[in-house]
Q: What sequence folds into this?
């Protein structure tokens, strides 16, 4: 037996090895925390073939360092400080930035404390195969560990620790390369990268090689390309634009200090919420029924902030009151006295003049004078448009006084050609230009680039770095070029980036989690000792089938039904057992959690899981044995539940039907086989289940993407809903604090006020929103015999008044808010689509633990962890929906463009466009919003000439155009009127894509207006 020696550390070392700090508990109590550090001498440098660090595992830093830099020709490594990673992550991630990097533990921990998103990006960067990054745990090596000195700030302590680490490395390299007589000694250097001037000066005094990030990049081989990646914030030696440096009066008020903001919010004097921009009126923001904006000409940046104190969102009117807030920021607002409250305007305000006339990306003096004039003009315009409003329509109005959290990220943009002087269109010198974001809810961004001529006509990725109080626009930097605008691949990538859809290929660590047999994997033979068969029911003999849309490859649900001897009916829903393959706390699980959902575009699918699982091993293909998670009910003839059973299972689907195929089979009376009988039983039960839901108050709503639905669509829907409700009850019963559930909160009644008023005044229908059941009954009565599509249109508009459904942790909210308003169910979850939704995977794990199949993973016992995952999933789900809609709009634009071109060649050489019937769904002071039912398309028709606007009756009086029009009475156009529109496709100045442009043809031709 080996001898064990216990050594006691000398008391004098306690100062170095102990870390003491004070911490405030959630109850406000201050406690002292003492942590012991165990210092070592075997923390290796990470340099390949180092003579001193014998036994180092997997070093990654090349022995000679990098010798390509102009300033460090003998070889070097870079050691960035914390702020370099916080402000220059885009540069660090660039494939063209390739020097070997030493990442100190001090820096890594400080990045984690300062920004979790950047910390996650940094961790991914460390793992990237193309980067050479070594994490050096300086806090645990005896020569590099530092302790806080008296009166030393945490920032100064960390800076000193970083310098100590750089100094140790340079000493270590000198010791590893002792002088040899007769030979010139070439020693690589470790260069401290920092933009902190004081830190650089101290490093120089300590003989540590140091340089600012800009000076370092200037010495690289691809300097011209990489200099564009430098963020404007904190770049030493970077000549700012004149707009940023000229001394002049601030355009915006300075923000209140964060501590004061939080105290004001807590006291109820200030209010916190998310800033939402309005795409129709650049002088304010308010909720909008219409989704498609006309162009950037018709919008600008103003917004509302929803806060719990008021039933209506706080209205922010004008740029001054928006105070540099960007769509999605978490802001703090001060609400004005009620006498200063305003009502939203009913006008589409053209901002073309405000945006481009006299705007110079470089010239601050002209901008300042113009801004002051424009702000006065805005104030005058606001007074004129708000004075006519009644007090009943007014809502809380205020201004932004501070920012709690910025929502800045990389935005898809293109260069504004007007901001590039004609004399500089071929110059390769650094130029200041405007980048126009793809999203109309964002301001244009100033950036400096040497590549301006090459970037014209391309989609680019730009990040906002700062927005100073004296600058009308934010400043940012170029991340990378995406490709030529309107190119299909470029547009697809820009769409994914704009909606933050992760689309990178699955990495090796993720693919290593897949079964080693690959697509040859099969369910093993039934043996009781085999872990796959443990506690699994063998359901391979049941007549199970799947019913899905055409072309479905990721089949994650199947069904069966059969009569029982007691006269009842057994019905089962069988869901792919994805959690068998995606184990918790693995690289594949982490990636699925990050992606959250599969994203469906028109011609592309971005999978949540690798294809081997999604369309093969987990897909419930016919005539193939597959692992499943089954929910089996015993039901009466009236579809009342007698009992329910949850079990892991093995199934062998007998058929994979499309909806139409299953419908034909059900309706064919000549078919009497067991599979057909099963479909008929399921359909009969589904009809009764739906009747029960509707009687309970479930809503039958609609979306613009109208599809022809068959009975078999409803059949599948009803049983998926039943399975989700049953599973929700079970996991909530067993895990009342951490169950993964989904809820749909009742919408505030104020959301329906406009729709109620317009229905009553224009059609005489009363909309009762006292409950979901009352709303369902009211919607059923909204029928216009002369317009069969009217009821669907009203349901679409009612859907827009709803709140979005969301995932939540059961222990995080009050139980009386668990319900799903639209489904009229007191509890609900998602269980039936684990191939494409991560929430369903979590529900599977909880259900498996609830039936004692496997223990629940510790991560799902921790409420805070479940809450964090729910936040990510909710966000990913929203972004996936918006990406899907944007993809549809893009391809509709392409299709309409092609159709218009074909018509022009055949019979319309003048290019009259496409003519369709439409409904008016909104009226403005200078335009109307229309909905083309046949295409599921919305658009905006604006009038340049003055028209009479009756806001109370939602009517515009449009004067006819053409010869003799002055003798003809104006034509009244109201909400719900049926009109004829002309649809054209033209290049959008903002997105650089084809966009839909609409004009009225009947009852009046708006082209002359």
A:
């Amino acid at each position: 037996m080996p001898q064990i020696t216990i050594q006691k550390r000398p008391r004098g070392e306690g100062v170095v090895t102990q870390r003491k700090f004070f911490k405030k508990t959630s109850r406000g109590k201050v406690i002292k925390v003492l942590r012991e550090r165990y210092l070592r001498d075997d923390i290796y440098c990470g340099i390949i073939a180092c003579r001193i660090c014998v036994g180092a595992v997997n070093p990654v830093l090349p022995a000679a360092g990098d010798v390509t830099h102009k300033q460090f020709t003998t070889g070097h490594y870079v050691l960035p400080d914390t702020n370099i990673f916080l402000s220059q992550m885009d540069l660090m991630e660039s494939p063209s930035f390739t020097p070997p990097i030493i990442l100190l533990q001090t820096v890594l921990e400080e990045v984690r404390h300062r920004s979790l998103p950047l910390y996650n990006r940094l961790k991914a960067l460390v793992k990237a195969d193309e980067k050479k990054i070594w994490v050096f745990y300086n806090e645990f090596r005896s020569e590099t560990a530092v302790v806080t000195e008296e009166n030393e700030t945490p920032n100064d302590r960390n800076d000193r620790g970083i310098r100590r680490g750089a100094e140790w490395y340079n000493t270590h390299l000198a010791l590893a390369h002792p002088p040899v007589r007769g030979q010139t000694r070439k020693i690589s250097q470790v260069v401290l990268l920092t933009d902190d001037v004081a830190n650089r000066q101290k490093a120089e005094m300590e003989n540590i090689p140091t340089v600012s990030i800009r000076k370092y990049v200037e010495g690289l081989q691809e300097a011209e390309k990489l200099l564009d990646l430098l963020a404007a914030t904190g770049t030493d030696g970077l000549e700012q634009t004149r707009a940023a440096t000229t001394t002049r009066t601030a355009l915006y008020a300075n923000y209140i200090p964060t501590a004061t903001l939080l105290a004001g919010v807590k006291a109820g004097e200030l209010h916190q919420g998310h800033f939402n921009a309005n795409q129709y009126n650049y002088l304010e923001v308010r909720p909008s029924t219409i989704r498609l904006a006309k162009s950037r000409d018709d919008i600008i940046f103003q917004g509302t902030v929803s806060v719990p104190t008021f039933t209506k969102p706080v209205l922010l009117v004008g740029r001054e009151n928006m105070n540099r807030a960007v769509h999605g920021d978490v802001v703090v607002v001060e609400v004005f006295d009620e006498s200063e409250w305003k009502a939203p305007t009913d006008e589409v305000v053209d901002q073309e003049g405000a945006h481009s006339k006299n705007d110079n990306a470089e010239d601050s003096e002209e901008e300042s004078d113009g801004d002051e004039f424009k702000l006065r003009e805005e104030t005058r315009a606001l007074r004129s448009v708000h004075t006519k409003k009644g007090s009943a329509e007014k809502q809380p109005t205020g201004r932004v006084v501070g920012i709690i959290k910025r929502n800045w990220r990389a935005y898809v943009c293109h260069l504004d050609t007007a901001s590039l002087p004609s004399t500089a269109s071929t110059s390769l010198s650094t130029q200041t230009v405007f980048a126009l974001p793809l999203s109309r809810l964002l301001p244009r961004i100033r950036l400096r680039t040497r590549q301006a001529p090459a970037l014209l006509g391309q989609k680019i990725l730009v990040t906002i770095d700062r927005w100073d109080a004296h600058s009308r626009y934010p400043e940012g930097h170029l991340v990378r070029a995406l490709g030529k605008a309107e190119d299909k691949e470029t547009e697809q990538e820009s769409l994914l980036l704009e909606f933050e859809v992760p689309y990178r290929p699955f990495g090796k660590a993720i693919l290593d989690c897949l079964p080693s047999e690959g697509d040859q994997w099969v369910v093993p033979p039934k043996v009781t000792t085999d872990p796959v068969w443990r506690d699994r029911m063998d359901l391979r003999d049941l007549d199970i089938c799947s019913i899905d849309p055409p072309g479905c490859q990721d089949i994650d649900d199947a069904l069966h039904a059969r009569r029982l001897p007691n006269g009842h009916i057994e019905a089962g829903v069988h869901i792919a057992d994805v959690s068998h393959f995606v184990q918790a706390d693995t690289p594949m699980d982490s990636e699925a959690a990050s992606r959250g959902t599969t994203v469906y575009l028109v011609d592309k699918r971005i999978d949540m899981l690798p294809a081997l699982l999604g369309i093969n091993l987990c897909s419930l293909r016919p005539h193939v044995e597959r692992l499943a998670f089954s929910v089996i009910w015993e039901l009466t003839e009236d579809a009342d539940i007698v009992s329910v059973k949850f079990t892991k299972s093995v199934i062998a689907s007998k058929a994979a039907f499309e909806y139409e195929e299953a419908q034909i089979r059900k309706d064919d009376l000549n078919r009497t086989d067991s599979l057909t009988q099963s479909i008929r039983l399921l359909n009969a039960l589904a009809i009764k289940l739906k009747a029960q839901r509707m009687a309970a108050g479930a809503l039958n709503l609609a979306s613009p993407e109208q599809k022809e639905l068959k009975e078999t669509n409803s059949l599948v829907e009803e049983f998926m809903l039943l399975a989700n409700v049953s599973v929700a009850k079970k996991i909530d019963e067993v895990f009342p604090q951490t169950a993964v559930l989904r809820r749909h909160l009742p919408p505030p009644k104020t959301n329906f006020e406009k729709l109620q008023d317009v229905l009553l005044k224009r059609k005489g229908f009363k909309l009762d929103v006292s409950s979901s059941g009352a709303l369902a009954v009211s919607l059923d009565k909204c029928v216009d015999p002369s317009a069969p599509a009217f009821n669907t249109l009203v349901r679409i508009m009612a859907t827009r008044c709803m709140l979005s459904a969301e995932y939540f942790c059961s222990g995080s909210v009050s139980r009386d808010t668990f319900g799903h308003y639209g489904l009229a169910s007191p509890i609900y979850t998602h269980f039936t689509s684990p191939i494409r939704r991560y929430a369903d995977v979590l529900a599977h794990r909880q259900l498996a633990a609830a039936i004692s199949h496997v223990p629940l993973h510790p991560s799902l016992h921790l409420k805070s962890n479940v809450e964090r995952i729910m936040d990510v999933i909710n966000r990913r789900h929203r972004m996936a929906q918006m990406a899907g809609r944007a993809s549809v709009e893009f391809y509709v634009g392409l299709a309409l463009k092609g159709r218009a071109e074909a018509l022009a060649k055949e019979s319309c050489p003048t290019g009259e466009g496409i003519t369709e019937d439409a409904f008016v769904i909104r009226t403005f002071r200078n335009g109307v919003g229309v909905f083309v039912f046949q295409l599921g398309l919305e658009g905006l028709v604006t009038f340049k000439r003055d028209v009479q606007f009756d806001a109370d009756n939602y009517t515009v009086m449009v004067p006819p155009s053409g010869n003799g029009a002055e003798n003809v009475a104006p034509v009244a156009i109201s909400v719900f009127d049926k009109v004829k529109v002309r649809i054209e496709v033209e290049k959008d100045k903002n997105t650089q894509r084809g966009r839909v442009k609409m004009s009225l043809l009947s009852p009046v031709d708006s082209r002359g207006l």
About this structure: The CA atoms of residues 516 and 612 lie 11 Å apart. Residues 863-906 form the longest helix (44 residues).
